[in-house]
Amino acid sequence: MLNSLSGRFLILTTVFVMLAEVLIFVPSVARFRADYLNDRLERAQIASLALLADDMIDPDLERELLANAGVYNVALQRNAARELMLSSPVPGQVSHSFDLREAGPVTLIHDALRRLLDPEPRTIRVLGYPSREAGQLIEVTMDSAPLRNAMLEYGLRVFLLSAVISVITALLLFLAVRRLLVKPIKRVVGQMQRYAEAPEDARRIIKPSAGVRELREAEEALQSLETQLSASLRQKERLAQLGGAVARVSHDLRNILTSAQLFTDRIEVSEDPAVKRMAPKLVGSITRAVSLCENTLAFGRAEEPAPVLTQFNLAALVGEVLDAERLAIGDHDLSLSEDIPGGMQIRGDPEQIYRMIGNLVRNARQAIIGSGEAGEISVSARIEDDDWVIDVTDTGPGLPPKARDHLFQPFQGGVRKGGAGLGLAIVAELVRNHGGTLQLARSDAQGTCFEIRLPMGENA
C-alpha cells in the first residue's frame, strides 16, 4: 500500500494539509489570545461602570465584579485623568505588560507563542482602548494561567479539526487520483504486458482512451511505438521467409550452374577465336555464380561471409566488371571507362570487391538506360593516406529523394521499378566486412558518384 503511487500520494497529502493547518494554527491562536484579552478589558470596563454610578460600593460587590471580569484591578483614564476604579490584592509582582493598542500581527504571534511555551503562572498587565470610546485608556492586571489554559483548549480543538479535515481531504484526493491517474496507468501497464506476450498481433496495439491529456499523449506515443514494432517484426518475419526461399532457390540454381560449368569446360577447348576470347569470361561468371550459391547455402544467416583477403590487381578486376557490363549494354548509347593505375595492388576479397563494383556499375547502367538518354559510367581509384578509394561515377539522372532517405536499407532503397532494393544494401555490407565505408559523394541532375573507402591496414 505505502509503495504504491496512491498510497504515497495519500501520505503526502495528509502531511501537506497538516502543514497548512499548522501555518493557520499559529495566527489563529494569536488572534484568540488578543480576543481573550480584549474580552477581559471589556468585562473590566463593564465592572467599572458600577463605580461610576456610585462612588462607594460594597467590598464584597467589588470582589464579585473583579472575579466576574477575571482581573485583579481596573484602571480607567478619562479626561486625561487616570483613576483606579476597582482593585484587589495582587499575588506577586507584575512580570509582563502587553499593550494591545499598537500591537501588530508579528507582536501578537510572538506574545502568543511565548505564553504557550511558558507554563509558569504569572501576573500580567494589559492595556487597551475602552469600548465605545468610554475613555482614553483602560488597564487591567490579571493572572496568565487561565489565559494559557484557554489557549491550550482552543489549540486542541483547532488541531483535532485540522486532523479531521486533513484525513477527509487526503481521502478524497486519494480516491480522485486513484480514479483519474492510477487506474489509467495500471490499464496502460496491463496493455503493455498483454502486447509483450504477442507483439506480432496488431489487435493488441493500445487504443488511446485516457481523458487526462498527458496520459493520452503517453498512450498515443505507445501506440505509435507498438505499431512500428509490429511492422518491424512482420518485416523481419518476411525477410526470414525470404531467406529460406533464397536458400532453396540457391540450392537448385547451384545444380543448374554446375551443369553449365561442365559445358563451359568443353567450350574452353574450342578452336574458334571468338569462343576462345569469350570462354574465360563465361567461365569466370559461372564460377562466381556457383560460389555465391554455395556461400548462400553455407551461410544461413542474413549476413555476408567474412572476406578472404588476398593481394590482387584492381585494374584487372575492374576490367572484368566492365567487360561483363558491356555485354548487357547492347546497342544503347552508353560508354564505360576506367581510370586506375595499372600496377595498383590492393588487399581484399576479390569476389566481394567484384560484387561491390559490379552492383554499383549495374545500378548506374540501369538508371541511365531507364532514362533513355546517353550517358557514361567511369570507375576510378586512388590512394589517400592509409585508404584505397574507389569512385563509381555516372552521368545519369541522380537518385530520387525516397532512395536517398533509405539508401542502404534492404527492400526500401530501390530506384528502378520492379527492383528489390538489395544492391546498395549488399554493397554496404560487403564494404563494412572489409572495415571500410560506403558513402554517396554526389547525386544531382548531372549524375551520381559513390565512394568506396577501404583501409590498407598493416599488410598493405
Automatic annotation (TrEMBL):
EC number: 2.7.13.3
Gene Ontology molecular function terms on file: phosphorelay sensor kinase activity
A Pfam family: HATPase_c
Keywords: Coiled coil, Kinase, Membrane, Phosphoprotein, Transferase, Transmembrane, Transmembrane helix
Chief location category: membrane
Major enzyme class: transferase
Coiled-coil regions listed in the entry: 215-242
Superkingdom of source: Bacteria
Location of the Histidine kinase domain: 248-458
Taxonomy of the source species: Bacteria, Pseudomonadati, Pseudomonadota, Alphaproteobacteria, Rhodobacterales
Name this protein carries in UniProt: histidine kinase
Biological source species: Salipiger profundus
